[in-house]
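ugh ok fine here u go
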Amino acid sequence: MPDAATGGSVETRQSWIIAVTAVTMLALAAGAPLTVVIGLVPIAETLGGGRSIPSLATSLAYLGSGAGGVVCGLLAARIGQRRVAIMGGVSILCGLALASLGQGWSLLAGIGLGVGLFGNGALFAPMVAYVSLWFDRRRGAALALVSSGQYVAGFLWPFVFERAIGAFGWQATMRAYGVFAAVTVVTLAALVLAPAPMPAAGLGGMHSVKGRRVLGMPPNLAMALVAAASFLCCVPMAMPAAHLVAFCGDLGISASRGAAMLSVLLLAAFLARQFWGWLSDRIGGLWTVFAGSSAQVAGMLGFLATQDEAGLFVVAAAYGLGFGGIVPAYVLTIRALFPAAEASWRVPALLFVSLSGMAFGAWLAGAIYDRVGFYAAAWWVGIAVNVVQLALVAFLLMRQRRYA
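structure:
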């Protein structure tokens, strides 16, 4: 529904130009932490330790992106998304250059601070909140497109990184990609991004209503419960995405086939996300979360059911189809429940918690592997967490039905 209680839609042709530009920038930003995912084994060999250090770097990228999103979202409200995005592009270059030094501390600092906190932190959550202000009639579809940047990255970059790392090493690959991503992001931000239109007051409008309750609860309590659900579903979501290439290697499947499998998973997630976005405009964000999370559990069970290469390709695709629409559905839920004036901090705060779940899940799978020597135990833990999340979402749906 439109943001404005009266009057016309804020959507224009420029809205979709902004959305396409945003997804392009986010696809470049999301490629930076994938250099660690694809190069996990050679990075671990260079550092002389187990897989927990590069896994921790991936976790710090998620965590930094979430924390940076809150700070940069507030900063964007003051100085504009264009300047914040330019800062993010430069930070990605600096972070990958630092990470490529080949030391444990430099990897963690470069990926966590440069790529995560000031890089993706300036681009992902603030950009999602920014684009949401350009749409009111097809906000779910727009959010699905923009938040698909990580899946576009997951489809494009594993092939490139796997071959580049094999030919030139992971350190040179990081440096080259940092230059390419920074130049493109800065150029697009400078040429395309503009101030977002201001919707009128009303449901989802610019103004808060003092004392208004959300789902029959104080607004911040409702926000906390939605955010907790997002954390819980993102823990299992991160596990296969961060460890699929290494998982395949343990099964005797080559790194190139593992990278191809990761691309299939993320391509399926990208395509499915567009469907979930269309559906969420019709059934609402919370119902979309419940349906996608249920499918995610089924996908996790699939990774336990087969270790055959062909079977894993099928499972990877099915898993991607399931979880693809969950995160933008959470954003749509927040935008439906709270005023647009609060989007600049509520959306990044939600995504910070979501990315914290991704960070914890990526680290947890690596830590469990280092302790027990196989990934099946991590998959079971992820499934258990997902079941708890489904129960919480069911509770929120009951509140929504009661107080609609």
